[in-house]
Amino acid sequence: MEQEEFLIRKVLSGEQAAFRKIVDLHKNYVFSIILNIVKDRQEAENIAQETFMAVYSSLKNYRGQGFRSWIGKIAVHKSIDWTRKKKREREGLLSYLQNIESIGQGTEPLLEEKVLKEEEIRKLHALLLQLPSKYRDILEKYFIQSMNYKEIAEVEGISVRTVESRLYRGKKLLREAWKEE
């Protein structure tokens, strides 16, 4: 406890190395909280980074009681925010996939064609949700949110080459899953 208070004072006085020590002391605790909520190791790592950025920027507001609990609450809130964001993205994807059928040549498809298209949209949506999140997220950002490689790389915190690779692999996995169905 005294060590944390000492490190907090050091961080507030501008000593960056002290914050690294705070991170080292609490990273496993924070990671386990987040992983328990989001159930995705890679996402948990990203959220842990966001958590520690929030801890750093909010450190001046810390009231001096229960530092570990305070960090834990930030981790829980970041995880819940992520969960809500993912839910909104999935709902947006479903809406997008349901509206895909309206994109066409301006002719009203026959009822049978319309039913088949709706089934394909549901199947595509289900297959997309089964992909690992690192591929699904890239595909959603590229095809649904119309983000370019550079924008995706910045948002995801990865290189453009990694975006290209995951997009290629994600499309390949989606095609393979489609053929298996």
Description:
The structure is a single chain. With 181 residues, the protein is mainly alpha-helical. It has two domains: 2-82, Orthogonal Bundle (Rna Polymerase Sigma Factor, Chain: A), CATH 1.10.1740; 104-180, Winged helix-like DNA-binding domain superfamily/Winged helix DNA-binding domain (Arc Repressor Mutant, subunit A, Orthogonal Bundle). Helix content is 81%, strand content 0%. The chain has helices at residues 2-12, 16-38, 41-58, 67-99, 111-130, 133-144, 149-156, 160-180. Helix 2 (16-38) packs across helix 3 (41-58), helix 3 packs across helix 4 (67-99) and helix 6 packs across helix 8 (160-180). The longest helix is centred in the middle third of the chain and has 33 residues, at 67-99. The termini are far apart. The relative contact order is 0.07.
